[in-house]
Give the backbone structure.
Amino acid sequence: MPDRAPQPVERQLPTEEARDLIALVRDIVQREIAPRAAEEEDAGHFPREVFTLLSDSGLLGLPYDSDFGGGDQPYEVYLQVLEELAAARLTVGLGVSVHSLACHALAGYGTKEQRTEHLPAMLGGGLLGAYCLSEPSSGSDAASLRTKAVRDGDDWIITGTKAWITHGGVADFCTVLARTGVEGPRGITAFLVPGDAEGLSAATPEKKMGMKGSPTAQLHFDGVRVPDTRRIGDEGQGFAIALSALDSGRLGIAACAIGVAQAALDEAVTYATGRQQFGRPVADFQGLRFMLADMATQIEAGRSLYLAAARLRDAGLPFSREAAMAKLFCTDAAMKVTTDAVQVLGGYGYTADFPVERYMREAKVLQIVEGTNQIQRMVIARHVVGPESR
């Protein structure tokens, strides 16, 4: 059996424009992202220049309105772009997803004046965003957040600490959820905060097992003054805005997970068809063939699941349940597929000479971010059997 080079994913895309878009992404991946991914991840290098290129190429605002600098692309196309980027380097794919999440509040709930003033730069002006919801003591229980915003005339004074912030310390703007009223979800409001605001500082980035090129850090708000014109939506509406953003963001995580899993499968197939043992390629052995078949099936199932959810979103239909299912299934699949890819490569899979060990380390975080998979099961169960009895 000859070596089998990985083939590009055959995508069902709705328009010729979408096909051209995927071709553009693949060209950027091959030229600018994939060749340096392993080296830069190992060095912990954040590829800001890649995000600048993606912005210049119109790829940072794909699912948003072209009237404000977006790409007018349906979510099913945007997510497949994310998958292609994540397959090359998760730091980039997840970074684009987080940036899109950070733009969601203003795009969906801002006034026309706010969107006209801020969105063009956010979507296509080279800026990079961060999404600030989690805190040291409130992760899954986001409604218990403690960061406060206190009214001071026409301004708000924000004080508190946000945790686990992707792009912490390098973001140009932050969508921040802060408490402006009563305890619980009804007392939370959303704000758009400049990354260079006085009183805003970043802690030393976390030392992570994967995604070393993507800075994750606490952000400290020490009396950060924000004008009321940067409040997004009504007072007390912030938690509903956050949940709406997370439904869409979970689909981004699902797409990124399938990208990482696809990269791991491609590497495993290349190795298995080229590696000789007992005078024949190891891909000839049934045990390995079945493992690769299971990996491919999980990837296809996950891709179909996230695309089905995206099409509901594009049609304006409820998709919260399907988003949770996609995030749960795709990230669990990515963990299984990347672990199996290490097994296919044997001892080589456990070394940094091959990328599958990096894929396995990166897949783990996808089961945690934007709602752990235990939280996803809670969300799904509520849709299936109703809320828990109190």
Remarks:
- The first helix runs from residue 16 to 43.
- The CA atoms of residues 199 and 286 lie 61 Å apart.
- The two ends are 61 Å apart (CA to CA).
